[in-house]
Amino acid sequence: xxxxxxxxxxxxxxxxxxxxxxxxxxxxxxxxxxxxxxxxxxxxxxxxxxxxxxxxxxxxxxxxxxxxxxxxxxxxxxxxxxxxxxxxxxxxxxxxxxxxxxxxxxxxxxxxxxxxxxxxxxxxxxxxxxxxxxxxxxxxxxxxxxxxxxxxxxxxxxxxxxxxxxxxxxxxxxxxxx
Amino acid sequence: xxxxxxxxxxxxxxxxxxxxxxxxxxxxxxxxxxxxxxxxxxxxxxxxxxxxxxxxxxxxxxxxxxxxxxxxxxxxxxxxxxxxxxxxxxxxxxxxxxxxxxxxxxxxxxxxxxxxxxxxxxxxxxxxxxxxxxxxxxxxxxxxxxxxxxxxxxxxxxxxxxxxxxxxxxxxxxxxxxxxxxxxxxxxxxxxxxxxxxxxxxxxxxxxxxxxxxxxxxxxxxxxxxxxxxxxxxxxxxxxxxxxxxxxxxxxxxxxxxxxxxxxxxxxxxxxxxxxxxxxxxxxxxxxxxxxxxxxxxxxxxxxxxxxxxxxxxxxxxxxxxxxxxxxxxxxxxxxxxxxxxxxxxxxxxxxxxxxxxxxxxxxxxxxxxxxxxxxxxxxxxxxxxxxxxxxxxxxxxxxxxxxxxxxxxxxxxxxxxxxxxxxxxxxxxxxxxxxxxxxxxxxxxxxxxxxxxxxxxxxxxxxxxxxxxxxxxxxxxxxxxxxxxxxxxxxxxxxxxxxxxxxxxxxxxxxxxxxxxxxxxxxxxxxxxxxxxxxxxxxxxxxxxxxxxxxxxxxxxxxxxxxxxxxxxxxxxxxxxxxxxxxxxxxxxxxxxxxxxxxxxxxxxxxxxxxxxxxxxxxxxxxxxxxxxxxxxxxxxxxxxxx
Amino acid sequence: xxxxxxxxxxxxxxxxxxxxxxxxxxxxxxxxxxxxxxxxxxxxxxxxxxxxxxxxxxxxxxxxxxxxxxxxxxxxxxxxxxxxxxxxxxxxxxxxxxxxxx
Lengths: 178, 644, 102
Fold this sequence. Notes:
The complex is a heterotrimer. Chain B contains 26 helices and two strands. Chain B is mainly alpha-helical.
């Protein structure tokens, strides 16, 4: 019974993922695309939960869907939605190439999966109840992967500075332009 | 004795190097003295070696002295070694002795010329090269000397390098010698392939050669010999080589370099004896050359060219002797020929110098009264050349003629006939020259210059150096003394072989090369009488023609043919030179210009096009870059999955 | 494990990745391109999490978190650039940004 429920939820979330993904690249209005992406992120969070990665799911909703997407929406609102059809403009071969590449990547991975990757994907490990809990994550971040933790924080700092610089109104320049 | 031999070899080299390195820092006279001194120093070394070897018994007279190993290639080894034995000692003495006299003579002759120092350096280089040739202890060193004398000859013939005729003559000499060098090299390759060594042939090693190998090797050596010694058919370079200064003609093209071919045959006679057909061929070529050169000399107007053809003819005698196996007489004639031919050239040089460069005998005449010393010297030389006893030429030439008679058979008798005909021609052309130059009324040119050497000339008050005697007004002492010495040698040099009485020279050479044919004293005296009388007839014919004021060869077809030197030059031009030029031009038009030169701009344009094509890939279109990245990832995934 | 095992997660991840790649190459508006990039990053996050569950170690989730942080940083910079474009009245069209041509 429990397994069946899990399956159902999983299938629903997976379908939502894929459909919102297609929607992102198909809408002409960037606002709609952004909203579709939020949906995508939410369904992904569901999938994370089903894979016992609670903290990551929470972070996904809070950080990604909450902060990053809001930033996106702000910028889209500020810039005004300029409409252009998905396959408007550009050389023909580029459009065909896009689909070809996507298909190629997809097929390759499916093939790898179907051949079961030499049997390396057969048995899932058993996990404890605290798998994926903040405590576990925190333990690893501050013990084994401290370096990654620190570097990531520096990256975030650099990005923040970069964002501010890019968004700054350089006073002299704007006066000359205007 | 070995030290003396090494001194002989190295002194001229040191002289040449010294002059070359000192350049313009030394005076011209200093260069001349260094050159002369180094050659005479070599002569001293040779005399020292000679005296010591003379004291040894005949079996012991071969000395091989090795300095160091020069080339090793597997089992093939060649060392820097010199061979001191009777034959090489004879050559050493001739080269340094006569050579020294000639270089001394050049001091006066070349005084005031441009670039004197270069001349003296080249002369010393030549003497060294010739000594290397005759003293080399193995065939490879002989070849080194061979090539170097060819080089020295080229440099000296082309000494007046602003004259196009001189440059052309130098090239011609070098090219024809190169043909001989090539055949010699091929012979050597064969020797190395079959015997693995380039040491001089011994009885054992020559006997071990198969007859076809021996024939091929001997042919190769013969090719080199006839090119170097200007025998038919590779003779056309020698007359043209007279473009060089007269001392050069005397030293290189009369006394020493052109006799290298004879030396080669004597040195490798064991191979020739293993290939008797080739040996007889060399005798036949020599015989033919005697006559051909003799008739061409009858119509020449240039004093030096007459003497050049005479040289060709006399070397024919030496080849005849070597070809029949009379090695002793071949070397003997080589020696006496060196004396009287150098004498003739140097006297001619005195005349030319006196007449400020004139060489045409039609403009000369009556020099007997004006230049008595030179006249006497020239007469001695001419008589020696014609083989009149008791001068040197008689003893050597008649020995050769007797040997051909003693050989007998078809070969021997036909060569005998050719040799006698040669004696007739020699008398004729030599004395035609003598009479035209020295007898008769003095020509205008002679009268112009008759005020003695010091007057009417641009260079030098040489009269100041003479002790006031008129004879020495003919030229500077440095020129006249060597002429005098050579006169004496040409007169008495032949007395080293008096058949049946004493033959020290022949026994001297015998220990190295035993003769294949020896004439009895009876045969010798009989043929001598015949030869001398025929020579006398030649002289008489010349006298008669001169008195009658006509030429020996009447105008007409024959004379024209002789004046064109029997059309050999034209033949070679048509057969070799024109086709070669044709092929070269064809190659230049069809291959060099379109393909090689045309391809270079093509390659450049091609690279430019490729670059343009490649540049189009970088369109700046971001999406295409992204596509390429994604596609590469796709490919990489396949690779990883496949390789696992 | 309850529910589908890791191969299913990976399949979804592959599909999302392909969709994102297509979007990056296909669309001309830089905003949509950025969104497609986000999809790709999320697809890889999903793969990490799936594997982490499969092997029973938390390191995959750690990496997913780092990826999330870097994605946020990248979006920040990317959006800043887009705002800068529009400030300078440049067209929001990747096809016209051809300064990198050869």
